[in-house]
Each structure stands twice: as structure tokens, then as C-alpha cells.
């Protein structure tokens, strides 16, 4: 267990309230730019979200939801068809800008995540939008036991947003993701952007006998800013990455690993620029001669 787990790891249920199963925001000491809400909704349930200081991306985890969005005096309904589960493939998502009124309604049981990014800009920004599931770029990243699938629904060039960057990753049982370890905690134009990052996990046993599917997440120091996280993670757990090298995210040999990433930062450019830990960056060179895990192809 890492010495900073208590500060940066939130086990499932530990940050729940009357409306949300997960509620991550700036009430976390040292956390500024990102937030996350998740909820399990019964048919007919509604949730309203305060977007006075944040933009949002609504991500159905299971089932679909209906959104009522009012922005600049104009109301519209956005229907997210969703999916059976996070293991079923990409989902459609919706972007909602800061200052909008947002209400979610579930017409059938559903699970939903709301990714949040702080936005203090006063000039006009992006309008509400809907990204269809078939328009979500799906990337196969890495190779061999570092193979994973990345669903890039909320990255620049796919989703128009002010600060928000978001995606989700599927790592098959036994594989390592977020590998090689990398960081994005300094503003270096064209090289690296400063981004906080949230990891929200789901796990799934690959065998019907499995009753405790789990994975692991590592975050460690880069330069003179100490951080030491080594967490055993299960469905609903959250790991916060304020800075430092992060990776690997490890899927146990008998459990697939899913995570939703939410990123945002203070820099002038909305970009996802990373640098690898030099001790491990050579790993990328081996990928050209190593096939992708066939479970992802």
C-alpha cells in the first residue's frame, strides 16, 4: 500500500451522498480542476447538476438517460441511448457547457457518470452537443501484455470543449495499461500539458467462480514533488492523480479492468501532451515487433 493512498484513493462508497454514488470535487484538499459524479438510477429517477462553475460530459455506464439542457435561454432535450454495460463497447455522450441548466432523467434503470472540468472563462464557449457512439474513435494502444483499448469520446478533435478531456480504457485480464508510466504535470508548450486526472474503475471476473475481481494502480514521484500511491482497485473505486508518474494500471490475471479518465488543467491550450518516465520509455520501441492482444482485435 502506498503511503499516500489515504489522501488520493477513494474506495467505492466512501464519497457517496444522498444523490450520488461518487462525488469528487474541489472539497478534496489540493484538487482544483476536475470532478466526477456517478449514480445508479431507477426508472423515473432524476438528477440535476449545478454547472455554474463547470462544464460537463455525460457518459452512460449502463442503460441510457434523457437530458434536459437549458443554455443561453434555449432548452433542448438530448437522448443518450447508452449501452448494456461498459464492457459492451463505446457509448454516445453529451457535452454541456458551464452556466447551463442540466437535468437527467432515467426512463429505465441506468448508471451514469458526469465528468466535470472547472471553467472560469467569461467569453462564449462551445454549445451543447451530442457525440454518437459510432463517431467515437476506438484506438488499440500498446502491444502484447501492454495492449488496451481506448475510447476517445472526449478528446480534442472529437469533442468541442473548453477544458475537458475524457476517455475510457478497457484492459484485458492480465495486461498492463497506462504503460509506460507517464506524466502531464508541467506546462511545456508542444511537449507537456498540466492536467489533473481522475481514474474511475470497474472490474469484471473472467471466470464464473470469480467473486472479487480487482486490479492495481500506481502513482509515484516525478522530480521534487513526492507522491506514493499503490492501490488495489475494484468497481467504483477512484484514484486521483494530481501530479507525478502514473502507471501501470494492472488487470489481475482473472479480471478485466475498465477505467474512465477525466482530465483538465490551468494551461492555455486544451491538449493531452504527456512525457514518459525515462526509465521505461524504451518499452515503446518493442511494440513495433509485438502483436496487439488478439482479445482486442
* Count of DSSP strands: 22
pLDDT < 50 runs, ≥5 residues: none
Distance between the ends: 34 Å
H/E order of the elements? HEEEEEEEEEEEEEEEEEEEEEEH
Could you give a short account of the major beta sheet?
Answer: 9 strands, antiparallel
Percentage of residues assigned to helices: under 10%
C-alpha Rg, in Å? 18 Å
Query: How many distinct helices?
Result: 2
Could you please describe the fold and organization of this structure?
The protein has 297 residues and is an all-beta fold. Helix content is 3%, strand content 47%. It has 2 helices and 22 strands. The strands form 4 sheets. Strands 2, 3, 4, 5, 6, 7, 8, 9 and 10 form a 9-stranded antiparallel sheet that branches. The longest helix is centred in the N-terminal third of the chain and has 4 residues, at 5-8. The model has no long low-confidence stretch (mean pLDDT 97).
Structure summarized in a few sentences:
About 5% of the residues lie in helices and about 45% in strands. It is built from 2 helices and 22 strands.
Spell out the key features of this protein.
297 residues; mainly beta; 3% helix
Fold topology:
Blueprint: H1 5-8, E1 9-10, E2 22-24, E3 34-41, E4 46-50, E5 54-71, E6 74-83, E7 93-96, E8 101-105, E9 110-118, E10 129-131, E11 138-141, E12 148-154, E13 165-171, E14 176-177, E15 182-183, E16 196-205, E17 215-222, E18 225-233, E19 238-241, E20 245-251, E21 255-264, E22 275-276, H2 283-286
Antiparallel strand pairs: 1-19, 2-3, 3-9, 4-8, 5-6, 5-7, 5-8, 5-9, 7-10, 11-12, 12-13, 13-21, 14-20, 15-22, 16-19, 16-21, 17-18, 17-20
Amino acid at each position: 500500500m502506498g503511503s499516500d493512498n489515504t489522501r488520493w484513493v477513494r474506495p467505492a462508497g466512501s464519497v457517496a451522498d444522498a444523490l450520488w454514488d461518487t462525488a469528487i470535487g474541489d472539497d478534496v484538499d489540493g484538487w482544483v480542476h476536475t470532478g466526477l459524479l456517478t449514480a445508479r438510477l431507477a426508472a423515473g429517477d432524476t438528477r440535476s447538476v449545478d454547472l455554474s462553475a463547470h462544464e460537463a460530459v455525460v457518459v452512460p455506464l449502463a442503460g441510457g438517460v434523457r437530458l434536459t439542457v437549458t443554455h443561453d435561454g434555449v432548452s433542448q432535450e438530448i437522448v443518450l441511448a447508452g449501452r448494456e454495460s461498459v464492457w459492451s463497447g463505446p457509448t454516445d455522450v453529451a457535452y454541456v457547457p458551464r452556466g447551463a441548466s442540466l437535468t437527467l432523467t432515467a426512463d429505465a434503470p441506468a448508471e451514469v457518470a458526469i465528468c466535470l472540468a472547472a471553467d472560469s472563462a467569461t467569453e462564449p464557449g462551445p454549445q451543447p452537443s451530442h457525440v454518437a457512439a459510432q463517431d467515437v474513435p476506438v484506438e488499440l494502444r500498446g502491444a502484447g501484455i501492454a495492449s488496451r483499448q481506448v475510447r476517445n469520446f472526449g478528446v480534442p478533435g472529437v469533442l468541442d470543449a473548453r477544458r475537458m478531456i475524457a476517455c475510457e480504457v478497457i484492459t484485458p485480464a492480465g495486461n498492463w495499461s497506462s504503460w509506460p508510466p507517464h506524466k502531464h504535470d508541467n506546462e511545456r508548450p508542444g511537449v507537456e500539458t498540466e492536467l489533473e486526472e481522475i481514474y474511475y474503475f470497474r472490474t469484471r471476473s473472467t471466470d464464473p467462480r470469480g467473486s472479487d475481481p480487482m486490479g492495481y494502480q500506481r502513482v509515484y514521484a516525478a522530480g521534487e514533488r513526492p507522491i506514493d500511491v499503490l492501490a488495489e482497485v475494484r468497481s467504483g473505486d477512484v484514484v486521483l492523480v494530481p501530479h507525478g508518474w502514473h502507471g501501470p494500471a494492472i488487470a489481475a490475471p482473472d479480471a478485466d479492468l475498465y477505467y474512465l479518465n477525466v482530465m483538465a488543467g490551468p494551461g492555455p491550450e486544451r491538449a493531452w501532451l504527456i512525457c514518459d518516465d525515462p526509465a521505461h520509455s524504451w518499452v515503446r520501441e518493442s511494440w513495433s515487433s509485438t502483436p496487439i492482444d488478439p482479445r482486442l482485435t
